[in-house]
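job 3f2a | input accepted
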Amino acid sequence: MTPSASALLDWYAHQRRSLPWRALPGQVADPYAVWLSEIMLQQTTVVTVMPYYERFLKRYPTVQDLALAPIQEVLAAWAGLGYYSRARNLHACAQKVVELGGFPSDVEGLRALPGIGAYTARAVAAIAFGRPVVPVDGNVERVTSRLHAVTEPLPGARRKLDMLASLLNDDPAARAAPSDFAQALFDLGAGLCTPRRPSCLMCPWRESCKGHAEGTPELYPVRAPRKVKPERYGVVFLITDAQGAIWLRQRPEKGLLGGMTELPGTTWRDEVFAPVEALQEAPVSAAWKDAGEIQHVFTHFRLHLRVMVARLPKFDALHNQSGFACPPEKLDRQALPTVMKKCLTLAGQARVD
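job 3f2a | predicted structure (353 res):
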């Protein structure tokens, strides 16, 4: 039984979330606002994104402003949101959009832009340009898996769920209001069809839901057992001078945390560094003190970083090292990822957002 798009849209008209990137009822969505929010929301929650989005939009009110900004400035504005390749792709995409004279309005054109995959292309096409496509994020995936009681586990079931979600567009009411329908699906998953304790009695689609009929909607989507994250280890060296400046360096443009600012340190490996071994990789000979260890979880591994601190009268001994001295009052302007902010916080130099 195909659920009623009209019923969902009626529910959405009264229960829609108020989000800073959403157009008000009767208004046309801004493609820049929709695209920016969708990129930020990848792997991140709405609650986390909202203050970042508002600060970002104030700093770069148009796609032209973003395209003209230096990449290091953009990375600094992004710092704390994680998955920093998104920020680099965001900047590259803005430049391409300006070159094209605006955002493409179709899925194919949007997918050709840097950093835009299948989901984001559909979301922007549906919400900003009224294209009748169904963007499938985690919320829509969950709703669809419960509607059909899909027993195949994720991630292997994603292709099937994508196909089943596309069938929701067969309802003429969905095709007549693509922007509202896509956002209604997001809100249904975020507000009622939640991962735990879904509010089925309030759901406009409960009569069509096999998971609800079974009485166990929370069992869906089925997930394959999670693999244990491997542990990796490293050491960073926090060096200050007599004025309190900190010695920093920039990571390579490509790879994890590409282009971000960091404390100098060792490579990250599968074994713990012995104290003497770690100090052999220190950028300068000094009276090093152990400030402790931080932990940070990346997508594919857990990182343990030992923080060693030292104070020098001047940075003269670092003249042959790549890096730069950052005065304390300019530290918050640097593109420091959260893992580095944790190291600075441990040493009493900064706070984590």
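job 3f2a | The chain has 15 helices and six strands.
job 3f2a | closed
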